[in-house]
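User: Can you model how heme C sits in this protein?
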Amino acid sequence: MALVVVVVFVIPSRHSTTALSESPSLAQGAGDTVKMSAETRQCIACHQEKGITAAAIRDWKRSTHAVNEVGCEKCHLPAADAAEVIRKTASACKDPRVRSKVSARNCTFLS
Ligand code: HEC
Ligand code: HEC
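Assistant: Here's the modeled complex, given as C-alpha cells:
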C-alpha cells in the first residue's frame, strides 16, 4: 500500500491586508459572513437598492473595520464634539444624520 505524504507550504503574506482579503470568509465576498449592526445593515440595504457607492461598501466589507464591527455609523454620524464644519454641513445622503467628511473625534470608539 502506497503512503502518500502531502506537504503543504504555507507562504506568509507580506501584508496583513493581503492575508485578510485572502481569508476565505471575506474573500468569498460580499460580506454575507461579515457581522454587522442593524444600523450598518440599513445603510447598505438602501445604498444597494439604489445601486450606489458599491466600492465604498465593498472596501468596508473587506476591511479590518468590518472584522471589528466598526460599522458605517461609527464614522459617518459625527461625534457631538466634531468640528462645526462637519456637524453643520449636510451630505447628499437620504439619511440626514450622515456626513461625508469624517471627524477624528469619532475615533473614541477605539477606547
Ligand atoms: C473607519 C471609518 C469609516 C467607516 C467604518 C466607513 N467609512 Fe465611509 N468614509 C470614511 C472616510 C474617512 C471617508 C473619506 C471622507 C472624506 O473624503 O473626507 C469615507 C468616504 C465614504 C464615501 C464617499 C467616498 C466614495 O467612495 O464615494 C461613501 C459613500 C462612504 N464612505 C460610505 C460608507 C459606507 C456605506 C460605510 C459602511 C458600509 C462606510 N462608509 C464605513 C470613513 C469610514
Ligand atoms: C434611504 C436610503 C439611504 C439610507 C438608509 C442611507 N443612505 Fe447614504 N445615500 C443615499 C443616497 C441616495 C445617496 C447619494 C446621494 C447623491 O449622491 O445624490 C447617499 C449618499 C451617501 C454618502 C455620500 C454623501 C455625499 O455627500 O457625498 C455617504 C457617506 C452615505 N450615503 C453614508 C450612509 C451611511 C453611513 C448610512 C447609514 C447610517 C446611509 N448612508 C444610509 C441613500 C441612503
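A couple of observations from the model: Residues 36-106 form one domain. Helices lie at 16-22, 24-27, 38-50, 54-61, 64-67, 72-76, 84-88.
User: Helpful, thanks.
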